[in-house]
User: What shape does this take?
Amino acid sequence: MTTILLTGFEPFENEPINPSWEAVRRLDGLKLSSAYIVTRQLPCVFGAALVALDHALAAYQPALVIGVGQAGGRADLSIERVAINVNDARIADNNGQQPIDTPVVPGGPAAYFSTLPIKAMAHALRTSGIPASISQTAGTFVCNHVFYGLMHRLAGTNVRAGFIHIPYLPEQAARHPGQPSLALDTVVAGLELALRTAIATGKDLRETGGQLN
Assistant: This one.
């Protein structure tokens, strides 16, 4: 049986919870076809997050990896297309670090693309009534740091990987008036469907997923 690794993050920026971990941990141990899901929480800390990721990759030797992170202000499951080799933190991480214009991997490529069938995943989610889109930026905080580090580590292997950003949960949005949110059950269902689609899809759909700006 193959292993799927899902990662989420600890809370940051004074939030009591992080929806990425709340959603991901509910899928721990789930069997999908011939695959088994394991989940791990990563620290919201530059550098330390990649150390924790390395431990998980070594321990489980997964065939597919998806990182999940919180993106307050987004209204849907945002399936990321590209990770860039830049740390540029608007706020400090949970260890007080605030790197500005530093590389995730010195000397690494400028960017990596997700190796997941991102358009098939977004299509499946929308068809099932779950808001989803293709995102062209994973930001420049710890989420992108992990996404880039993940893709760098798996470059040249057959392991498929990528990253999904999710909105606030309703209880978080209540503290941030006007911000969109999705219910935890909806996010969990969406992540499960995204995984099932990734497992079942060899060649991605050819349909628009771009943006004008």
About this structure: The first strand starts at residue 2 and ends at 9.
